[in-house]
Specification:
The complex is a heterodimer of chains A (118) and B (108). With 118 residues, chain A is mostly beta strands. Chain A contains no helices and 11 strands. In chain A, a hairpin with a 5-residue loop joins β5 (45-51) and β6 (57-58). The N and C termini of chain A lie far apart (37 Å). Chain B has strands at residues 4-6, 11-14, 19-25, 32-38, 45-50, 55-57, 60-65, 70-75, 84-92, 95-98, 102-107. In chain B, strands 2, 4, 5, 9, 10 and 11 form a 6-stranded mixed beta sheet that branches. In chain B, strands 1-3-8-7-6 form a 5-stranded antiparallel beta sheet, with no helix packed on it. Classes of the chains: A mainly beta (118), B mainly beta (108). The interface between A and B is medium-sized, with 21 and 20 residues.
C-alpha cells in the first residue's frame, strides 16, 4: 500500500534553533499534503495545507513565518519550525492524499516527528 | 458547528464485548468517509473506508447514513489489542475533517 515517510522521527533541539521535518510520499504523487500538530492526549490539529508549487494555506492562529512549509515536488513537503521554543514541543505529523490507480483517495500519515525544545 | 462531531469516550469494555462508535458530519456534500486508528504516541492508520452500502472487515463493520449524516464503526468480539483511539475522518472537497477521536480500552 501507499506509504508516507516522515523524518526525523525524534528531534531534540535548543531553544532558538530551527528544525526541519521532511514528509515524503513513496508510492504516489501528492499535490497536496497536510501538516498537523498533536499535544499529549489531544486531537490532531491541522496546521496547514501544503500545495505543490504554490504557497501553503495556514489555519487560523498558525504563524506562517514560524512554521515554514515548502512543497517543491510532488513527493516532498518540508516543515521548518523556526526559532523553536519549548512551547513548540509537540508531535508533528504529515499526511498526503493517495492518488492514482488502486487508491481510493484516503489519507496516509507519516510516522510523526516528536520535537522537544529544551 | 463543527464539521465532524465524535464522542471522545472513554469507552471501557470487557474482552469479547461489542462496541459501537458514531460520528456525525455537518456538510451534506461530503463525499468520502474513513475510520482511522491511532495508538498512543503513534500516527493514525487507516482502519477502513466507509461506503454507502456498508462494509465489513473481519470483526469491524462500518456504515454510512447519508440521510442522517453519520457514520458508525462496530467492533465485535473486542480484543485487548483493539485498545486505541478511533478517529472518524470526513473528506469534503480537498479538505479532511477529523473527529476528536474516541478512546477505547478493552479490559481483560
Amino acid at each position: 500500500g501507499a506509504v508516507v515517510s516522515q523524518h526525523p522521527s525524534r528531534v531534540i533541539c535548543k531553544s532558538g534553533t530551527s528544525v526541519k521535518i521532511e514528509c515524503r510520499s513513496l508510492d504516489f504523487q501528492a499535490t497536496t499534503m497536510f501538516w498537523y500538530r498533536q499535544f499529549p492526549k489531544q486531537s490532531l490539529m491541522l496546521m496547514a495545507t501544503s500545495n505543490e508549487g504554490s504557497k501553503a494555506t495556514y489555519e487560523q492562529g498558525v504563524e506562517k513565518d514560524k512554521f515554514l512549509i515548502n512543497h517543491a515536488s510532488l513527493t516532498l513537503s518540508t516543515l521548518t519550525v523556526t526559532s523553536a521554543h519549548p512551547e513548540d514541543s509537540s508531535f508533528y505529523i504529515c499526511s498526503a492524499r493517495s492518488t492514482g490507480t488502486g487508491f481510493t483517495g484516503e489519507l496516509f500519515f507519516g510516522e510523526g516527528s516528536r520535537l522537544t525544545v529544551l | 458547528r463543527k464539521e465532524v462531531e465524535q464522542d471522545p469516550g472513554p469507552f471501557n469494555v470487557p474482552e469479547g464485548a461489542t462496541v459501537a462508535f458514531n460520528c456525525t458530519y455537518s456538510n451534506s456534500a461530503s463525499q468520502s468517509f474513513f475510520w482511522y486508528r491511532q495508538d498512543c504516541r503513534k500516527e493514525p492508520k487507516l482502519l477502513m473506508s466507509v461506503y454507502s452500502s456498508g462494509n465489513e472487515d473481519g470483526r469491524f463493520t462500518a456504515q454510512l447514513n447519508r440521510a442522517s449524516q453519520y457514520i458508525s464503526l462496530l467492533i465485535r468480539d473486542s480484543k485487548l489489542s483493539d485498545s486505541a483511539t478511533y478517529l472518524c475522518v470526513v473528506n469534503t472537497g480537498n479538505q479532511f475533517y477529523f473527529g476528536t477521536g474516541t478512546s477505547l480500552t478493552v479490559i481483560p
